[in-house]
Design goal:
The complex is a heterodimer of chains A (663) and B (197). Chain A is built from 15 helices and 16 strands. Chain A is of the alpha+beta class and 663 residues long. In chain A, helix 12 packs across helix 13. The two termini of chain A are 102 Å apart. The chains are: A alpha+beta (663), B alpha/beta (197). At the A-B interface, helix 10 and helix 12 of A face helix 1 of B.
Chain lengths: 663, 197
């Protein structure tokens, strides 16, 4: 560490003091020495000057005396000079160096007339030649003591030193004072700066009355402080305003968010569908709609506990449903299942939402909806559609029944009336018999018999009675067939599929629909050997009927107003493990622009009131969705259309949801 | 069966119906004919006079109401009736508007109801024919009287008795009027007897 660095680390005040001390001491020392040496020089010069002046005056005064060798006078003269105390030596030497007169300190003899004695310590020596016409005759020697002069010089030096010392002292005091005040003011500023740096902006006004630099600095500092304070206050106000705004904004937003959350919750929970989140790993419901909470009467906190799934959906009662839940793939899901709980509560529930897999396990989020009523209504709708088609057929079927009823009753009436006619004939015959037995009037009796027979028109009766009875029996058979077909057609739907003879069912349906097509088409049927088919027979009948009625209508549109008859073709056959039923017509075919719409609900080409547009939509739903079969058609404009139904013979793999019936 | 007073044509694509009706109504004094289609029925109509046609509505080829509309145009004197197994309002409206049918029967129908209605219709028809005939006769006679009055004004002066009744004297020129009055009396009796039925 250099000296400069060391000095720089000292307090400012000390630095100042050191500088002041150094400067004042140096100045004082230099000035004292200079003064002293100058003063000595001047005094020495003065002394030399004086001694030379005295020497010259003595030279003049002594010249005659030397010339005359008047030593006494010389002595006296010299003695008069000797009163001067500073003049500690005076002498006159003869030309040969011999001392003529002298007192005080003087050499006894000059080595030579021209010898220069020079200065000796403590003495100032001056010499002057005394010249006469004869040449040099002697020399004057004067020696001044420098003691007084040196004493004065020493005193002066001391005075100077003392003055210098006092000046240094004063300077140091002053310096100390000044440095202290400067340092104090700087320290004040530094302190204020430090306070400011530490964030304390309380406005402490520094003393800036002085007009010096520190005063300026203090003033500038004050100005800065003031500005800073002003800015900081402004800033603070701004910050606080902003903060308030921000806070109010945050609270507003929070409130809005809360409100929106509440709205969404209310919306989500306002329907009968129950929003839920299911943690499959633990079986807990981290979120469950209020409705479920209310319905089951379990507090919401219970739902969040593990294994809640086992309580609301006991595994042994809901195997299918649990399988669906656990096998649910990541992504959107939608399935339906029967939810059974202890206490025999059972409902068809529709589950839809999204399945997510996270590190924590598998989560199902979405809605569960009780669709028991809906499914019930759907079944009712299907039943209603069936009733509708039966109703539409009812007029035709009524005709089919009323016609045989008409002739059966007419024939029976004939037989009834004929019986009374026969009775009178028989009575006549019995009378004849009695007459024959009693040998009475046989001829009269025979005449009566003939009359009775004529009256009864016996030949007609005998001829027509068997015909009437045969006709009545035929009519009754027809009625029986129709009634049986109706019953078979309206086969009550079971909850599950049952094996059915489709050929028999289709024949019955043909009987029901007979009146729809018999006036417009000839039926060509071909029933192949079919195994029993697992199906909902009532619904299959419905589908076949819809196709038959459509075919009949299509043919009717073509043959209308002519006496031509179209052809209605119904075939069944076994193809692999599927049964194919085809219903073909010789109608106008399906126009190309509606071919992809015919299976849509409410699509109909029939005039208003003749069709609801549900027939083929329901047919498609029944064949494809419920039976896992297929329904397709081939059509050519002007040639006709054939629909092909294919049904798997065995247990259908696809079924509506998971109609699981607990054993 | 002897001496039938009317000919009735039954049209139905179901022969059982016509046969059975014939059997049930064999005692009635009418003659039954039958046809299994509208075309066959029209042929029969063209060959012989037929008083009443009873047709089914739903038949192949031509419906009953269409058939009866043709009958109405070609044989307006023939009484037309429908015996249908299908109570379709559309068919009924068509039958009434186009065929102007006399009755619309629904199967099953009691044959005695059918025959009574047919008899009534026949009586009505006969009455109409009679009144038409009488009207024609009356008009003819009125014309004769007008001519007589013109030729000899005194010929037709009527004598009245004290009650104001016309006194008809047996004279050469009064026979026609007496005949007319007798016929009117007969017609009135006929109507009364029909109303009783």
């Amino acid at each position: 560490m250099t000296l400069a660095t060391r000095v720089r680390d000292l307090p400012l005040r000390t630095q100042l003091m050191l500088v002041f001390a150094f400067l004042s001491i140096a100045t004082t020392a230099i000035s004292t020495i200079t003064l002293t040496s100058m003063s000595e020089e001047r005094m020495r010069a003065t002394l030399r000057d004086r001694s030379q002046r005295i020497a010259r005056r003595l030279q003049q005064q002594l010249q005659p005396m030397v010339a005359s060798d008047d030593h006494v006078a010389a002595r006296a003269l010299l003695a008069s000079y000797a009163v001067d105390q500073e003049l500690d030596g005076i002498a006159v030497y003869a030309g040969n160096g011999e001392l003529i007169a002298g007192s005080g300190i003087r050499p006894q003899q000059l080595p030579s007339i021209n010898a220069d004695i020079g200065a000796t310590a403590g003495h100032e020596v001056a010499m002057a030649d005394i010249k006469t016409r004869g040449g040099q005759e002697g020399r004057v020697y004067i020696s001044f003591s420098t003691n007084v002069f040196e004493q004065m010089l020493t005193r002066d030096a001391w005075i100077a030193a003392a003055l210098g010392g006092s000046v240094v002292l004063c300077a140091l005091l002053l310096a100390a004072q000044t440095s202290r005040s400067i340092a104090r003011r700087l320290v004040n500023i530094a302190d204020a700066a430090k306070r400011m740096a530490s964030g304390d902006l309380t406005h402490v006004r520094l003393d800036d009355t002085a007009k010096d630099e520190i005063g300026d600095l203090a003033h500038s500092f004050n100005v800065m402080m003031y500005e800073l304070n002003r800015l900081s206050v402004g800033q603070e106000r701004l910050v606080s305003t902003q903060r308030e705004r921000l806070e109010s904004l945050v609270s507003q937003r929070t409130q809005a968010l809360e409100q929106s959350r509440e709205t969404f919750r209310l919306i989500a929970e306002s329907t009968k569908a129950i929003p839920f989140t299911l943690d499959l790993a633990s079986g807990a419901f981290p979120y469950i709609g209020a409705l479920a909470v209310a319905n089951l009467g379990l507090p919401e906190s219970r739902w969040k506990e593990p294994a809640m799934l086992d309580i609301v959906m006991p595994a042994e009662l809901n195997r299918e449903l649990r399988r669906c839940l656990y096998e649910c793939a990541v992504g959107p899901f939608e399935f339906e299942g029967r939810l059974t709980r202890a206490g025999r509560v059972s409902a068809i529930v529709r589950w839809m939402g999204t399945c997510e897999r996270t590190q924590g396990g598998k989560f199902l989020r979405g809605l569960m909806q009780d669709v028991t009523e809906l499914r019930g209504l759907e079944q009712e709708l299907a039943a209603a559609q069936k009733l509708e088609s039966v109703g539409r057929l009812a007029a035709g079927v009524a005709h089919e029944i009323n016609t045989p009823v008409q002739f059966v009753s007419d024939n029976v009436e004939f037989v009834r009336v004929s019986m009374s006619d026969l009775a009178s004939v028989i009575h006549a015959h019995r009378c004849l018999l009695a007459e024959v037995e009693s040998s009475g009037n046989i001829a009269a009796a025979a005449h009566l018999v003939a009359g009775a027979e004529r009256a009864a028109d016996l030949d007609y009766i005998l001829e027509n009675t068997p015909l009437a009875i045969a006709s009545a029996i035929e009519g009754l058979k027809r009625i029986a067939t129709i009634v049986r077909s109706m019953k078979e057609f309206a086969y009550p739907d079971k909850a599950r599929k049952t094996p059915a003879d489709l050929n028999q069912a289709i024949q019955s349906t043909l009987v029901i629909a007979n009146n729809e097509y018999k006036h417009v088409a000839v039926l060509e049927s071909e029933f192949g050997e079919l195994p029993p088919v697992q199906c909902y027979l009532g619904e299959i009948n419905q589908v076949v009927l819809n196709l038959l009625v459509n075919a009949a209508h299509s043919i009717a549109d073509v043959v209308k107003g002519t006496s031509n008859l179209g052809t209605l073709t119904v075939r069944t056959r076994l193809v692999g493990d599927e049964v194919e039923i085809s219903v073909g017509d010789t109608g106008s075919g399906i126009p190309e622009d509606v071919r992809d719409k015919i299976f849509e609900p409410f699509f109909t080409t029939k005039e208003i009131g003749k069709g609801t547009g549900q027939g083929l939509a329901i047919a498609h739903s029944v064949i494809v969705k419920k039976h896992g079969g297929s329904l397709r058609f081939e059509t050519a404009c002007g040639v006709g259309t054939t629909f092909f139904i294919r049904l798997p013979v065995g247990m259908a793999a696809v079924d509506l949801g998971v109609e699981h019936v607990a054993a | 069966m002897s001496n039938p007073n009317a000919t009735i044509l039954l049209v139905d694509d179901e022969p059982n119906i016509t046969d059975a009706l014939k059997r049930a109504l064999r005692r009635e004094p009418v003659e039954f004919l039958s046809a299994t289609s509208a075309a066959a029925a029209l042929q029969l109509l063209a060959h012989q006079p037929i008083d009443v046609v009873v047709s089914d509505e739903q038949m192949p080829g031509m419906s009953g109401s269409e058939f009866l509309a043709i009958v109405r145009k070609q044989f307006p004197q023939t009484i037309r009736m429908i015996l249908s197994g299908q109570a379709s309002l559309e068919a009924a409206v068509r039958a009434i508007n186009e065929g102007e049918v006399h009755r619309f029967f629904l199967k099953p129908c009691n044959p005695s109801d059918l025959i009574v209605t047919i008899q009534q219709a026949l009586a009505h028809k006969r009455l109409e024919e009679q009144s038409r005939r009488l009207l024609r006769e009356f008009q003819r006679q009125a014309a004769v009287l007008a001519k007589l009055d013109h030729n000899g004004p005194d010929l037709l002066r009527l004598d009245t008795d004290e009650q104001g009744a016309v006194v008809v004297e047996e004279s050469e020129g009064g026979g026609d009027v007496a005949d007319l009055l007798a016929e009117i009396e007969l017609a009135m009796q006929g109507r009364r007897s029909l109303e009783r039925v």
